[in-house]
Amino acid sequence: MNNKVLLRVIPYSFQRLNNIILKCITLFESNQVELFRSSAGECVAIHTRVLRFVGFLRGNGPAHALYRRGVLALTTLYLVQECVYAYKVRSDLDKLSRVMFLLLCHVTSLAKQLVFHLDSDAIKRLIDALEEPVFQNEGDAAMKLVEECTRRAWRVEAGYAGCAVLTCTLWLSFPIRDHTRGLHVEFPFASPHSTDASPMFAAILLYSYYVTTLVGIANTTVDAFIATIIYQCQTQFRILRMELEKLPDTARTISEAKKEAYETALTQQLAQRLQHYRHITWTVESVQKIFGKAILVQFGIGGWILCMAAYKLVSLSVLSIEFASMALFICCILTELFLYCYFGTELSVESSHLAGSVYAMQWVGAPAQFRRSLLIVMECARRPLRLTASTLVPLSLDTFLKILKSSYTFYAVLRQTK
Fold first, then answer.
1. How many angstroms separate the first and last alpha carbons of the chain?
2. φ, ψ (nearest 5 deg) of residue 18
3. Beta carbons of 142 and 242 less than 8 angstroms apart
4. Residues 397, 387 contacting (CB under 8 angstroms)
5. Adjacent-strand bridge partners of 389
6. Cβ contacts of residue 10 below 8 Å, gap of 6+?
7. N or C: less crowded end of the chain, CB within 10 Å?
8. Mean pLDDT for all residues in the chain
């Protein structure tokens, strides 16, 4: 197979593969799919579909279980090959920087992938918890908030994962361009030395593109999945605050409709709101327990990834495709870190207002026992929920700024040692 034929065949094959990978993401543009239902669980539907497609989330049947193991073995093998290549070129800083930002990114992806394998039952319980009746909110205002959460989840998934796919596709063009010019192509992972032959070049290129794109889609989708659950908890806190502020009026309406005592209806409504609060806090604690260590790895390595990517970026021409691809990659990493920190901060802020919403209800004139219960509720809700990465690093915007500062410090030291 000569270079001209290869140039036609490879992009066509990768275009078809790319279309298959993006199919789950582009469904949100279809008018034939009913996207926005009142169910809180619908907000993570796009993420769970993509995660099953890429072999991270557990699906149905032994065939999918075998596929998941195969994906885990493939991504692990690719990471080992990158480590071998990094060791070989450890004395060449340019080549080392070329592989290190991808290697570190694959380390964070593998950490998340292992969580989905080791804690698959806990993740299933977490997803099922979003479909619990306590999260099936009624009322136009509550439904609008849940629907907005779903819309934002689909937009984040499409934009974030789409950016990762575009970056990997741009990286695909570089070895093809060099190969068609008759230049030797050195892939940033351990591979056979004789890659200039067209069949071997096509096989290695396809392997590299498949693994890199799969990791890119999976990594971004996991981040969007976790961030969406946190955002859904924030939304549920906002709904809970709205319901608490109008709780006496709601209880009075129910009392008149069902012909029951007002105090009984008031107590029942408060009990339902407390159940709602406990379910939200359980969901937040589950996210932290399941993904805390993986997020800690992400935060610990994120600064180094940005440092290596920035080091590579400054050596490229601003008008080159290489510069555009690296800029997109840095945007993906910044988004990855920002999603956790932003929604973690929003959750803390929203939960901190809960006690104020309890006080803001029309409790004057309510039974004494109900007022005493409100004092207990306010005391329990006084401390806001604060998400942390494995109880060590808080998910806040301050942490995001610290990571950026540390990344710049690493970059400055690296430039001085060049």
1. 42
2. -65, -40
3. yes
4. no
5. 393
6. 176, 202, 205, 206
7. C
8. 83
Q: How confident is the model at residue 194 (pLDDT cuts 50, 70, 90)?
A: low
3-state secondary structure of 389: strand
Residues 225/48, Cβ–Cβ less than 8 Å: yes
**Among the listed residues 235, 411, 230, 234, the one whose alpha carbon sits nearest the alpha carbon of residue 338:** 230
Confidence of residue 19 (pLDDT cuts 50, 70, 90): low
Among all chains, which residue has been given the structure tokens 């290697």? 103
Taking the CA atoms of 226, 157, 397 and 305 in sequence, report the sign of the dihedral they define: positive
CA distance 13 to 22: 14
Residue 208 and residue 82: Cα distance in Å, rounded? 11
Torsion angle of the four alpha carbons 107, 111, 113, 116, in this order, in degrees rounded to the nearest 10: -170
Q: Are 218 and 108 in contact (CB under 8 A)?
A: no
Tell me the chain's radius of gyration from C-alpha atoms: 25
Grade residue 406 by pLDDT with cuts at 50, 70 and 90.
Answer: confident
pLDDT for position 369: 81
Q: Model confidence at 229, in pLDDT bands (50, 70, 90)? A: very high
Most distant CA pair in the chain, distance:
87
Could you tell me which residues are beta bridge partners of residue 393? Answer: 389
Judge whether 247 and 266 are in contact, CB under 8 Å: yes
CA distance 261 to 254: 9
**Structure tokens of 244?**
């608490």
* Most confident residue range from 69-73, 158-162, 383-387, 391-395: 69-73
Nearest alpha carbon to residue 124 among 48, 199, 177: 48
**Strand, helix or coil for residue 393:** strand
- The size of the chain, in residues, is 418
The CA-atom distances, in angstroms, between 57 and each of 49, 66, 110 are: 9, 12, 13
Rounded to 5°, the CA angle 376-234-109 comes to 125
Amino acid occupying residue 215: V
